[in-house]
Design brief:
Blueprint lengths: L6 H12 L2 E6 L5 H14 L7 E5 L1 H14 L8 E4 L3 H9 L4 E5 L3 H8 L7 E5 L10 H9 L5 E6 L10 H9 L8 H8 E3 L2 E2 L2 E2 L2 E3 L3 H9 L3 E4 L1 H4 L5 E8 L3 H15 L9 H16 L1 E3 L5 E3 L3 H13 L4 E4 L3 H10 L4 E2 L3 H8 L5 E4 L1 H4 L11 E4 L6 H8 L11 E8 L3 H10 L5 H19 L1
Parallel strand pairs: 1-6, 1-11, 2-4, 2-5, 3-4, 5-6, 12-19, 15-17, 15-18, 16-17, 18-19
Antiparallel strand pairs: 7-10, 8-9, 13-14
Helix pairs in contact: 1-2, 5-6, 11-12, 12-19
Length: 455
């Protein structure tokens, strides 16, 4: 296929070529992969400005997206890609292979750094989904930080650089410019742009940004980072979002309310921490979906209302494909039991079959499908069997179909159990405030309500 770049793609590609340190904060579906491959091809074969190129990506993206994009476009088909994936011997063989671009999943970066050390061979590095390096304490960040001085050219790609706030930016920017713009340490960054919020003694649980911190930070990084959104550049088909209310039976509602009280009331006089709130909300979300893990980690089935609703949607689709996001393993097993022809997304073969329209109901967890996969050729219907608190995962998952190349209206349906925590999560996602703070606020609000109901 002949690649005819949009104006914004030409601009973004030029930014990569002209800046040894480049951040592309491009909205989902704008074609970050083809932009980057085109720029790398030009740098390598026209400017002779790159040697060995490494792409670091989420596992499924490393397995499929980069090779598929290079095979798709005429001007990129000569690029040889070696995938440093699989077991140790397979990775070592791929590392020694002759190739233009080497692709590795981010979890194996510590291994790669330990293997190569001071003989790190890659002068050009692309970090696909830079936001996955937002934690300065993670092994992947620390490993890449060790070899960063040996990297001549680095490109960071993401659609959501700060999904949980500006605090997430420091580690990502450090890998790009080694602390030149936002400071050499996370402590210096916090001192300059934030003030402590909730704390317990010397332990700070929350950092609040100072007035004008956002504008100052973006001004600092504007010379190396460019930001674009799909809404500004693409004329995509209409996207329709629907809430499908799920009415629980009286007996199921009684069980839910009892579980809610049992979980919430013991904490009514104590502090609600993030870990505690996550445990509480997870149990309630599980029950909203229809099953709960008990203390023996066995699945206790409660109701089938969401399965019935999904069956109605599948029947109404009349043969059209559906991409369904689940949250818990028992969701997956129960859906597969009800729909024997459904398929769990496992790897490149499933992606290819889906894009050919051969899988009527494709099941996947948003964390496994949240970045980089192109599924828009296979359908335009999304169903959320269960929701979670991550706005980033929600947006990225929807963008697997709602992206450049989609020719149909994308219909996103959310199965929401009435009167449950489902409604709170759905509301937070709708107003774009989902995340840890929203989770904490929701749990505290439910405690107050339950206490009030008991008076």
């Amino acid at each position: 296929m002949k690649f005819i770049p949009h104006q914004y793609q030409e601009y973004a590609g030029s930014h990569v070529i002209n800046n040894p340190v480049a951040g592309l904060f491009l909205g989902m579906g704008l074609g970050k992969t083809v932009i980057t491959l085109t720029a790398l091809e030009e740098l390598k074969n026209t400017y002779f400005d790159t040697g060995k190129i490494l792409v670091i990506a989420p596992l499924r993206v490393a397995q499929d997206t980069w090779s598929r994009e290079s095979e798709k476009w005429d001007h990129l088909q000569h690029i040889v890609i070696s995938k440093i994936l699989g077991n140790r011997s397979q990775r070592e063989k791929a590392l020694k292979a002759e190739a233009d671009v080497y692709v590795i999943n981010r979890e194996n970066i510590p291994w790669l750094v330990s293997m190569t050390g001071s003989k790190w061979p890659f002068d050009t590095v692309v970090i696909d989904e830079l936001s996955s390096f937002k934690s300065s304490k993670s092994k992947r960040f620390r490993a890449l930080r060790r070899v960063r001085p040996l990297i001549h050219r680095i490109i960071g790609l993401t659609g959501t650089p700060s999904p949980n706030g500006l605090h997430d930016l420091w580690a990502q920017l450090y890998l790009l410019d080694q602390g030149e713009r936002l400071g050499k340490t996370i402590t210096a960054y916090r001192d300059r742009y934030f003030v402590p919020g909730r704390r317990d003694g010397h332990v700070v649980y929350e950092w609040k940004q100072k007035k004008e911190a956002e504008s100052r930070i973006y001004e600092k990084i504007s010379d190396i980072c460019i930001s674009m959104s799909a809404e500004d550049w693409l004329d995509l088909p209409e996207r329709i979002e629907r809430m499908v209310p799920i009415k629980l039976s009286a007996s199921t509602r009684k069980k839910y309310e009892q579980l809610e009280k049992d979980l919430l009331l013991p904490f009514e006089d104590g502090d609600i921490t993030a870990d505690t709130a996550a445990v509480l909300s997870n149990k309630l979300l599980q029950m909203s979906n229809g099953a709960v893990y008990n203390e023996k980690k066995e699945v206790q089935e409660i109701h089938e209302e969401k399965l019935d609703a999904l069956e109605d949607i599948v029947e109404a689709a009349n043969g059209k494909t559906i991409l369904c996001f689940y949250t818990y393993k028992h969701d997956l097993s129960r859906i597969l039991k009800r729909f024997p022809k459904a398929r769990k997304l496992e790897g490149p073969e499933d992606i290819a079959e889906w894009n050919r329209g051969e899988i009527p109901l494709l099941l996947t967890h948003p964390a496994s499908t949240g970045h980089g996969l192109n599924l828009q050729d296979g359908g335009h219907n999304i169903v959320w069997f269960g929701l979670n608190w991550s706005l980033e995962l929600y947006q990225q998952a929807n963008a697997r179909l709602d992206r450049q190349g989609q020719k149909e209206r994308v219909v996103i349906q959310h199965l929401v159990a009435e009167g449950t925590i489902d409604e709170i999560v759905a509301a937070r996602l709708e107003d774009k405030t989902a995340g840890q703070d929203a989770l904490l606020d929701a749990v505290k609000a439910r405690i107050e309500k339950v206490k009030g109901d008991d008076i």
